[in-house]
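Hey team,

Filing this mostly as a record. A colleague (T.K.) asked me to run one chain through the structure pipeline before their review meeting, and I want the input and output archived in the tracker in case anyone asks later how it was produced. No errors, nothing strange. Just documentation.

Input sequence:
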Amino acid sequence: MALLSGATIMALSVGQHAFGQTALPKNIPEGLKLEAYQALPITPFYTDNAPASTPSWPGALIRAEKVTDYAIPAGMTAWRILYHSLDAERHDVPTSAFVLLPAGPAPAGGWPMVAWAHGTSGVAQPCAPSLMKDLYYGDEGLFEFPKAGLAVVATDYHGEGTPGAHQYMNKLAQGYDVIYSVAAAHEALPGLLSQKWVADGHSQGGMASWSVGEMEQQMNNPDYLGTVSVSGTVDMLDFIAPKPEEIGAPFYFPMVAFGLKARYPDFDVKTALTKDGYEHYPLIATKACWFTGYAAYLGKTSAQIMKPNWTKLPAVQAMLKEDRIGDEPVKGPLMVLTGGGDVSVPPGGVRKTAHKACKNGIKLFFHLYPGLDHDPTMINSTQDQIAWIKDRFAGKPFNENCGTF
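Output structure:
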């Protein structure tokens, strides 16, 4: 979901639909209250170890359960799954996800499937979308996919929902979590899902979905049909660089520090965070999610919470190298979308990455929505995404537009 947009737009595009509010929280108690309103309990489904008798290869299902406590449109059905995935160093990690099925009987061959990668929800265990009644992106476009006859398997990313550290903003870790959710969903719901699938993601998930395309070039899975990347953090340096004018609260920077610690255990977050930056870090690292993070750093600037030249730290430089997008070939068609008014993930960095990819021989379709901020880009582009995805399942030719933007 949104990393951060202007307060008025964010209040309308996130807070109002999800929580019945007209304003973002002004303090930490308000943020915690908003999150508690949508929260579901972390049950043993997420925390019990996998039985010794179950396979442990990536994509193997650990357990599944039908879910009735989500606020989803009538007719849709939902499942929660737990499966084996890999972290950035290819260690086995249990990972949770949910599956949404459209209303009605499945067509012959099963529902065409979208593997969904969500935007920033937080870094702590309770911040998993599958632990939220509205599934975090419910009315921000997610429910439109099942309404259009597309099943959704949506990873939480490991460390959200499941125990362990979430490797926030790591393209490898998030890419693995998306890819291996597909096999697990097929095992959980045999016969109901098509073998063919497309990846789609927004923000943090926009980097993850593009990474899926790179990984599939190596895996060469014939059932993978392409990727949609919406407002993706595909230029990480552009995303984390200090901005001359900042809107709202820069709470995602402490989350980046958390992700660095998760990826590089020897990293000391205090080498990046100032005293003010670290003040609320333990809360964000353990239980607070998007809304509380926003409130915790409201009124601060990145210069107040991050130390000078923190982006030059060795761990940050290693992250930037590992997260490079646009150099490696991708398998299948690629759709890249961004909003001209995005103040969370600057459109210039997305466009620059798309240009670089084109020069590197990657065929893609790029489109900028004039004036749209971060979450409104996701909301207003949903029908375009769905139409493009359906064309992939229909086997229609892919029209790239490199050299025209």
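Quick notes for T.K.: The first strand starts at residue 61 and ends at 67. The CA atoms of residues 29 and 174 lie 30 Å apart.
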